[in-house]
Protein 1
Amino acid sequence: MSRPQRVLITGAAGGMATLLRPRLAQPGRVLRLLDIAEVPTRDDGAEIVRASITDPAAMEAACADVDVLLHLGGLSTEHGWAKILEANIHGAYVTLEAARRCGVRRAILASSNHAIGFVGTQDGEIDAAAFPRPDTNYGVSKVALEALGSLYADRYGMEVIAVRIGSCFERPRDARMLRTWLSPDDAARLVEACIAASAPGFRVIWGASANTRHWVSLAGARALGYVPQDDSERYAAGLAAPQRNLDPADPSLQRVGGAWCGPDWNTAEKEPERQS
Ligand code: 15L
């Protein structure tokens, strides 16, 4: 009998992993769910590991017998530099290094639109290869994650796909998310494509649904076999009127990172409060 495919998901207690867990469960696959926070036990055969992605020994133990790493761990929004450095940059390094030591062949990394948040939205579809222009410490950590992925692919032969995720929520919440939304079902389709792709080497791709109002090119994701089926447009009418009718010249729609590019996210000025 062939052994099951084992997929290690870091950040398993987080929002995106919670959406993905039931969607990625399938016969012949074991999900190993790792988080520093408690991950609920369910009747789905998942293996639960309580550990920090910054703990090398724990991560090496967690990577044993793993075929695919889906790295969603770390902080999912902006924080002071020390926290971002530890959780997102050092955590990514420890995770990839553990995966390498354990012979994990493939890693799918949760990068973010905030890696290129300062890119303008007016000049047509944004390619996945757009040069990094991070909008926050968090955005810098995602650039570092992509760079680590590149290193582990080129230096150690790991297959690494970094996905610049737009906004993965049950439904789009505002006018910007009509452009950046990745539906949970499409997120699962994208992960499945990343798992199934033949010899991808190192790639950076966009993670978004087939939104009528879109900013980013899905060519890279489609080349891996991703076929998105959702469109944020069906939620547009349900958004509150100010959001629905937002003038395209509104600052929140001028740059990919939206409000993260604005003064409220000027982290250096807010550093003392963000340290806590
Ligand atoms: C992200 O990278 C964040 O993790 C998420 O919380 C959202 O803010 C998302 O980007 C977004 O830009 O909508």
Protein 2
Amino acid sequence: MKIDILTLFPESFAPFKESIISRAQKAGTIEINIINIREFSRDKHKKCDDAPFGGGAGMLMSVQPIFDAVKSVLTNKSKVVFPSPAGKVYNNKMAKELAEFEHLIFICGHYEGIDERLIKIFDAEEISIGDYVLTGGEIPSMVIIDSLLRFVPNVLKDGSLEEESFSNGLLEYPQFTRPQVFEGMRVPEVLLSGNHAEIKKWRKQESLKKTKRNRPDLLKEDRNEN
Ligand code: ADE
């Protein structure tokens, strides 16, 4: 999979130089390019913002630099994503769907957003990572990319996805490691028993308990998002 990220702040993507995502890039499983939108500005001062028609507080991003930046990477296999608080709320199912594309282009918005016509022209998927407003599209892009890459074959070790939260509609069961007693609290006896059937049963019960406590909405019958 190839991902092009269009941004006014390329340095924000330093976290992608770490860990699993860096390894997947080095292995050639994924290719991530960070593209500076400002380089596409035809303004002599490389200006990238403009006032909104109709008035109102703040500025929009200029149309032309974004249009040219997208055009520079767009193919007939591309899906354009525009993270925005006005988008559809992101979930694991959307992450899996995005992971199926060969090429994703992320437009990181700033100021008050982008011209609506850009969304139309590129048929961009507007995605919100939650009901709050961040100062720019870089962090949401990183959230979306990090989570979808986990579904791209060979990015994670086999089996890593199978038991994690949301994979079976429930939150993941509690996990423990050494020591067996920590701050006076013992690891549940069943996990030390070596009885795999009992461990599986315990984990399912604990998954259910945690889901009831933290995310009762996931247990509603009409919900089928995972
Ligand atoms: N940009 C600013 N806030 C956002 C959010 N909640 N989701 C996606 N993009 C955003």
Protein 3
Amino acid sequence: MLPDEVVTLYRRAKRVAAFTGAGISEESGIPTFRGDSGLWVKYPPEKFASVTGLLRMFITQPDRVVDFAIDFYRMPLMAEPNPAHYALAEMERTGKLIAVITQNVDNLHQRAGSKNVLELHGNMYRLRCMRCGKHRYMAKDEIEGMLNRLQQAKGSRIRILRVVTGIFKRCECGGRYRVDMVFFGEPLPQDVLFEAERIVQEVDLLFVIGTSGVVYPAASLPYIAKDAGTKIIEINPVASAVTQIADHFLQGKAGEILPKFLHV
Ligand code: NAD
């Protein structure tokens, strides 16, 4: 059961947005990076989360970079949207929710049916031409094929490099593609960030779901919302950096709590 004040707040809100983090996809089988089984335990972010770190690792330990790529894509490739993703998509369909602002790169909001998804950190299935900015989505089969080829190329830096240059082919403009994700040390897409800032100030209610609230500048969004008078409902099994400013903290899993809002 949702607390009465939460039900009233949600019913009265005319425009709602959601700010989501890795936790919303945890019930889809994608571990959060920081959790005990998270990626950062096996692959320290100072080595694997930045472009320069990855290049350095590639020079010294290319097989580790291959292992990282395989582990990074493995769980998301198998994952399906969960009831939390579907609940947000349904809220949008009924006209209550105007946007999902996500830090996730796993494409699960879109696969659940959400239309207005602002991706602050990019998308792991998308490539971007570094010269003209053109986008290209990679199909699941294409990524699986690429990971298989990388696995077979292990043991030879040249062979790995050949597979990599095969993936990041040249665009029609002559520029080279890269994965369209924001690595540590890179700026967020400014247009997406500005739009997210505008939305959190404009809505009456912001759901903050499954984020530890420590990755900046994305983590500033709940504070910007609060300053603008937007009410905040946080959903997380444990308290986060956002909890202190949340109007309501609903402790628990997103996939169990969010669908309840569809029946109030
Ligand atoms: P985080 O790992 O820092 O925090 C995850 C939060 O989710 C924690 O507070 C945790 O308590 C909570 N959580 C765990 N299970 C939950 C559940 N079932 N329901 C609700 N909450 C749950 O994640 P972050 O704040 O998003 O920051 C990590 C960065 O890593 C982000 O920038 C994100 O882009 C990236 N990331 C993305 C994915 C993905 O795309 N699925 C996965 C891991 C990390």
